[in-house]
Amino acid sequence: MAVLPDTAALEAVARHIGGHADDLRSRASRLAAAAEGVRWHSTAAVAFRGDVHDLACLFRRAAGEVDEAAHALRQHAATVRRAEAIVRAAERTAMATLHGVAHVLGL
Amino acid sequence: MSGPVSVRGGADGVEAHYDDMTAAARLFGRAAGSTGEAALALHGYLVHPDVVASTVLDPGGAAQFAARLLAALDGPNGITWLAARCTVVDVRLRAAAAAYIAADRLDQRITPEVDALLHAPAAVADGVAAFGRGDPSSALQRLLTDDPELADLAMGATAGVLAGGSLSNGTRLLSRAFDDGSPQVTSLGDDAAADTAGPPRNLRDVVAGLARRDLGQPGEIDVRLLDGADGRRRVIVDVPGTKDWSLAGRNSDVTSLVTNMRAIAGEVTTYERGIVDALHCAGVQPDDDVLLVGHSEGGMVAVDAARHLVASGEFHVSHVVTAGAPIGLVAGGVPSDVDVLAIENEGDVVPHLDDAPNPDRVNVTTVTVHHDHGAILPNHDVGASYVPGAADIDASDDPSLRAYLAGLGAYLTAATVHTRGYLINRSYP
User: Fold this and answer.
1) Does any CB of chain A come closer than 8 Å to the CB of residue B399?
2) pLDDT digits (tens, 9 = 90+) for B259-274
3) Does the pLDDT value for residue B153 go beyond 60?
4) Beta bridge partner(s), residue B419
5) ipTM score here?
6) Would you say B13 and B365 are in contact if contact means Cβ atoms under 8 Å apart?
7) A52 close to A6: Cβ distance less than 8 angstroms
8) Per the CB < 8 Å rule, is A38 touching B78?
9) Is B85 near chain A, with CB under 8 Å?
């Protein structure tokens, strides 16, 4: 039935969102490694590395939140799939009932 | 009794590689862009047609998904904010690199002038007093030893007049008039008398070895072969300074002025090539750790030799110690795996003859010691000023000096020492 949402498409969206979470994690690692690799030694450099360390932690935390959003979308897709099945079953029952009534009435 | 020292650079100093900083800044800039694009794409999923259409069948689930994604995107420390933070880091890094570049340029330009101006009034007063006593030579000495940075100003001005530019350009042009010849190395044999003191146990012993060689004939150096308790051999090379001040076009003494003129600009000299030949003669191997110790001109030659030997891989120079050497123009080119300790006596004018302060680098530690004798020669003398200065350094708890001496440790724990003397002369075809 065309009016019902495409749960496969919802799961594809969840995968894309999960891919963004992976990108955020690898970005966090790259930025932290880059900060460590800079040949810069001073009190300002120590503060800079501390800032980047915190930033990398926040990137990883945001990635975790994005993963949770992707998981929520997968659960939503599963719920929608179950709802769709109920709607389709109700549709089939309704159609069968309609056909039965039409048969009894000789229509 | 040990005296106070002041330190610039070294392990506790500032090191900033501008190219590293700008490369990292670019990475953060790109991360800001990518993260911003990700935030836009993720916002788009909130209004994706299938997500909107599915809301009717599971409004609670759709609302939970939207709430979680919005929290990840626009909540405190969300992805949109992280993109902005990356931009801030990019800008801060670029600004820091620019500030270091500007500070380095300013430092190179004004440090001698500022230091000279800080000390000038007292120096002029002392000089005028000596001049008033009818002793102009003493007056000049007093002026220069009170305020050695005046030598930087004088050298800078002289270079400007002679070469219309930098001191290194000026000396390079002048040195063309003098033939540096080729090294002729003669073994002076084992120096058993030098070995009676035993292997060096501290920096004072190291510099005392240089002072002993400085008493030898012009062009005399030595190679101290140290057998370590770990079975490894280490080598100390003592390189004395100028013994001949003549401006003769041809001069067999490698310590003459032509070496100064070439070494101050970082060029390979016959003196340096003679040291390399002496290392071969002494049987030093490419993987033996080498410490070059030089006074005055010998310090410049030692720094230049370290640069050239690391580049060629001929010998493994790990450390350099200079005493009263003008290495400001060449020390910045020493590779990061060679640690340089530049000892400068406060009243010694010679370290200022290059018109350039030593660079502030992790691997270049400049330490000023304070042994003023009120005259140019003793203030520059290894035995009178730099041996006691080295003892001050041994006693110092400055972090940069402790780090340097810790790195030097393997040279100071040898079981035995065998010293061999060599004479380097300049020969002409």
Assistant:
1) no
2) 888 888 788 999 999 9
3) no
4) B224
5) 0.86
6) yes
7) no
8) no
9) yes
**Partner residue facing B57 (CB), from A30, A69, A84:** A84
Amino acid at B17: H
Dihedral, CA atoms, A73, A76, A81, A84, nearest 10 degrees?
A: -130
* DSSP per-residue codes, B223-286: EEEEE-TTS-EEEEEEE---------SS-SBTTSHHHHHHHTTT---HHHHHHHHHHHHTT--T
Verify whether the Cβ–Cβ distance B61 to A79 is below 8 Å.
yes
Break chain A down into helix, strand, coil percent, rounded to 5: 85, 0, 10
Kindly determine whether residue B28 and residue A34, on different chains, have CB atoms separated by under 8 Å: yes
Secondary-structure percent of chain B, ordered helix, strand, coil, rounded to 5: 55, 15, 30
Interatomic CA distance for residues B261 and B267, integer angstroms: 9
Indicate whether B161 pLDDT > 70: no
Strands (E), B333-415: 339-345, 364-369
pLDDT of B285 reads 95
**Does B21 sit within 8 Å of A24, measured CB to CB?**
no
The pairing of strands B6-9 and B364-369 is antiparallel
Residue that has been written with the tokens 């992805």 in this structure: B79
CA distance A29 to chain B (A): 12
Q: Are B234 and B222 in contact (CB under 8 A)?
A: no
- Using 50, 70 and 90 to split pLDDT, how confident is the model at B93? confident
Find the range with the poorest average confidence among A54-58, B4-8, B32-36. Answer: B4-8
Rg of chain B's alpha carbons, rounded to an integer? 29
SS3 of residue A101 by DSSP: helix
At B159, the pLDDT band (50, 70, 90 cuts) reads very low
| Minimal Cβ distance to A65: which of B21, B72, B85 | B72
